[in-house]
Design brief:
With 394 residues, the chain is α/β, with parallel strands linked by helices. The chain has helices spanning 5-22, 59-62, 67-73, 94-107, 121-131, 136-145, 148-151, 157-162, 170-179, 182-192, 215-221, 224-237, 280-286, 314-344, 367-382; strands spanning 49-51, 83-87, 115-119, 153-154, 167-168, 197-204, 209-214, 247-253, 256-264, 294-299, 347-352. A hairpin with a 2-residue loop joins strand 8 (247-253) and strand 9. The longest helix is centred in the C-terminal third of the chain and has 31 residues, at 314-344.
Length: 394
């Protein structure tokens, strides 16, 4: 007996709903308690992170440590000039910062940084910038060898409808683990033992606050769990909400374990030196810093977006609006760092992708575009033309 069109449609709908119900959805998680205000700690890894919007709770105790103790724990930062490096997000535009660092090496004036911090693509660059010029070839390879398909993979329709992001970042995480192997993490730990600091920023989406992760402290443990946490933190820092899946990080508080949801650090802060509210005058005095510290900021983006007519439709309007908000936030972060430099007497230097670099990427991670941008940043720094002394070039 022939079925009616209505019955056929109902049967088709039932099949689709059954298939959708059977598709892999994100697993249930141990949700954090409401109104969590104290920073929870990762099991077995004490003091791995701090809130990014308040001064570290242990800072006051650290400021009272005797000089003899600091000479042992901070031998690489005591009684010398200081240089700090801040790296922004920007996706494939991270090729600019990677090239700039390599060109800076070629110019012969690149210093050793006492603090390196990074967000999103800046979090990918930061470990190798922290370890120094010997890792310039790694930066070149990361930003000129891979394209979108090497880093992310589109999810299927049903997985997309029930999932938490449009893309899978399993390939990106594998790449992070490949380059940050046991030897590299041991090198980071060794530099941390000298008192140098490597920070990566994420956003705790459950509470909507920035988190600053101390990668040097985590690396010092030298355990497989510590390495996996570093991979998770860097992946989370790059996790653009909606595009990349959030990263669940298991923590504990009051004897209970639960999972926090972390996404791109740029959601709350695209550029940061360390946690907010630090009295740098006391910190530099405690470390007997010689002269005024130099703060170098690399923004892996342009200052002003190109002018273009926005189509009067929902998606283009939303897309342009979000991009404008991100751009404005980035400029605001530059101004905050400039304010910190002015307040504490730092020498402020900032670099961004200038208008003289032409072209746009054809995809999220366009290998040809990134290669050109890497070489552009390299030549800019090799000829010592990368720095501006004010936050927005005005």
């Amino acid at each position: 007996m022939r079925q009616s069109p209505t019955r056929n449609k109902a049967a088709t709908a039932s099949i689709l709903l059954a298939a959708l119900a059977g598709c892999a959805a994100p697993p249930e998680r141990l949700e954090p308690p409401p109104k969590a205000t104290l920073i929870s700690q990762v099991a077995g890894i004490p003091a791995a992170r701090q809130w990014g919007d308040e001064a570290p709770r242990e800072l006051q105790a650290w400021l009272t440590l005797p000089g003899e103790t600091l000479q042992q724990t901070h031998s690489g930062v005591m009684g010398r000039e200081h240089d700090y490096l801040v790296l922004s997000g920007g996706g494939g535009n991270g090729a600019f910062g990677a090239g700039l660092l390599s060109g800076w090496t070629a110019h012969g004036t690149r210093p050793e940084f006492q603090i390196v911090s990074g967000t999103s693509t800046g979090a990918l660059i930061a470990p190798f910038a922290f370890l120094g010029p010997a890792y310039d070839p790694v930066l070149r390879e990361i930003y000129t060898r891979y394209s979108t398909a090497d880093l992310v993979e589109p999810r299927g329709l049903f997985e997309l409808l029930r999932g938490d992001a449009a893309l899978s970042t399993a390939r990106l995480r594998a790449l992070i683990a490949h380059y940050l192997d046991e030897e590299v993490i041991a090198a980071i730990a060794a530099e941390g033992a000298r008192g140098r600091s490597l920070f990566v920023g994420t956003t705790n989406l459950d509470v909507g606050r920035p988190v600053v992760w101390d990668i040097t402290r985590i690396a010092a443990l030298g355990t497989p769990a510590a390495r996996e946490l570093i991979y998770d933190v860097i992946l989370a820092s790059t996790a653009i909400p909606g595009a990349f899946p959030p990263v669940m990080i298991e923590v504990e508080a009051d004897g209970r374990r639960y999972e926090e949801m972390h996404v791109d650090g740029g959601v709350t802060s695209q550029l940061f030196l360390a946690s907010f509210g630090i009295d740098w005058e006391r910190v530099t005095a405690q470390l007997d810093v010689q002269g005024a510290p130099d703060l170098y900021v690399i923004r892996n983006a342009r200052i002003q977006r190109d002018s273009e007519a926005v189509p009067r439709r929902l998606v283009p309007v939303l897309t342009r609006t979000v991009a404008t908000l991100i751009n404005a936030q980035g400029i605001g972060d530059l101004a905050k760092l400039y304010g910190t430099s002015t307040e504490y007497g730092f020498n402020y230097r900032v670099a961004w992708i200038p208008d003289s670099f032409e072209g746009k990427p054809a995809e999220t991670f366009d290998r040809e575009y990134m290669t050109r941008l890497f070489e552009f940043g390299y030549e800019l720094a090799r000829s010592d033309r990368q720095w501006t002394l004010v936050p927005t070039g005005d």
